[in-house]
Design goal:
This protein has about 120 residues and is mainly beta. The chain has one domain: Hypothetical Protein Aq_1857, Chain: A (Sandwich).
Length: about 120
């Protein structure tokens, strides 16, 4: 029987992983990860939140790629499933992590908020 590859909830690009590990190292938190979550708000209805975090709960999904860790809480997972976390050095409001989300049917101009179907 062939093994089926299990796709992670989200993926992180190699450039984003490098940026994340560098940032966490400078913050003195080399074992932390990037917690990505969704909250109500923003001009499109839902907003992304991202914070360094070294606490992982039983209900969290933990994705490790390219030496970096991304943490997604159970309630945010359905909204970000299949997304790619990338890093853009130049965006409208400066450089930062961006989410390319296949579940978003519309986004605001700055890309910080979105709406699902």
């Amino acid at each position: 029987m062939a093994q089926t590859e299990i796709k992670p909830i989200v993926e992180i690009s190699e450039s984003a992983a490098k940026e994340l590990t560098s940032y966490l190292g400078k913050q003195g938190k080399p074992n932390a990860g990037l917690r990505v979550f969704v909250t109500a708000g923003g001009c499109s209805g839902l907003s992304y939140g991202m914070v360094p975090d070294d606490k992982i709960s039983e209900d969290d999904y933990v994705i490790e790629m390219y030496g970096a860790r991304v943490i997604i809480d159970k309630s945010s997972a359905p909204f970000v499933a299949g997304s790619l976390i990338d890093y853009k050095s130049e965006k409208l409001m400066g450089g930062g992590f961006v989410v390319t989300n296949p579940n978003a049917v519309s986004t605001c101009g700055c890309g910080e908020s979105f709406r699902t179907a």
